[in-house]
Amino acid sequence: MYQKQIFFTRIITYLTSAVCLCTVSLPLVAQPKPAVTTSQYTPPRRPPPTRGSTVPLGTRNTPSQTQKKPYTPPPNIGKPNRTEPAGRRDECILGEKSLTALIPVTPEKLGLTIASRPTFFFYIPQTKAENADFSLQDENGNIVYKTTLKLPKTSGVIGLPIPNVATSPELQVDKSYQWTFSLVCDAENRADDKYVQGFIQRVSRPDLVAKVERTALKQRPSVYANAGIWHEMLTTLAELRRANPNDAALRAEWKSFLDSVGLKDVAQEPLVRL
Fold it and tell me: Which domain holds residue 238?
């Protein structure tokens, strides 16, 4: 009996030791490293407004001949597409780059704003045109704002604000507008205009306004970008770049935002004043 107890005790001791050795020898599982994120602008997905029709790209009448057309608001935000004007290049535009609107490069070409009078940005290539036209059309096809501007002598990105004067409109909240920017290549034959078109919608974001007011100036573009507000993101960053022309970080941030929405071709073009 005593010998059986010794035998069972030795077996239990052996098994306990084996379990301990197995536990100690288990490999450590490496913890996954946190993903590295980069700051970029992501176009928001918005519900589709009422659909209609619009003047197709590549066909254009002179301003005096333009008739009121049903308006086509953007149905949603989709995959990147070109924001350059359709049609062949001719003697009006010199060099390789085209007239380009600085908006998210999507089929709908929609930018959001919280401003009643926002700023629009365009890349102006080397061109023989001396003047350009800009017009803004409401959902009923009415032209609510129109201006002619003299183009800069050098190529680059311009900012075109709707002026804060009694004769210029305030954009209405939750309303979409279609804009058209045209290079006047031949004043006698406006069919030769090179132009881009897109859409803008004003949204109400009092929470965002309060957050921006509490944010340091150089961090404001990222706040707007995270909220999907394109026009104020670009306007704020352009103002920072003009105030700090030698700031490499601001230039890099500008390039990063434009790259993120398909505007790589013009992301390093200089800002020029009208």
Answer: 100-266
